[in-house]
Amino acid sequence: EVQLVESGGGLVEPGGSLRLSCAASGSAFSSYAMSWVRQAPGKGLEWVSIISSGGSSISYADSVKGRFTISRDNVKNTLTLRMNSLKPEDTAVYYCVGRRWYLPGITEYEYWGQGTQVTVSS
Prior knowledge:
Elements: E1 2-7, E2 10-12, E3 18-26, E4 33-39, E5 45-51, E6 58-60, E7 68-73, E8 78-83, E9 92-99, E10 111-112, E11 116-120
Parallel strand pairs: 2-11
Antiparallel strand pairs: 1-3, 3-8, 4-5, 4-9, 5-6, 7-8, 9-10, 9-11
């Protein structure tokens, strides 16, 4: 029902900022909780953040809390992740993902984008 396409990844120096975007097509985007998850080289999936379908509930992983901000626009069908004070350990492929129910901390989702690479390095 939903197709997701991420954009905005790239190379940034430690301490820098980056904005990731996710464009959704299809129907019922506003009915899904949306998350960002990431996978660093040689590591498993890590949950980053989630936002409820209406945008009223938000949660972040401890590793990014205070540095990252998730938001959504249900009119434009977009999801955004603003990342500040980036660290080398933030280097990963970032995926835009969706699920029916709001549940922080998990990496099991129904809909996945193709991912966008974020590299934090000097």
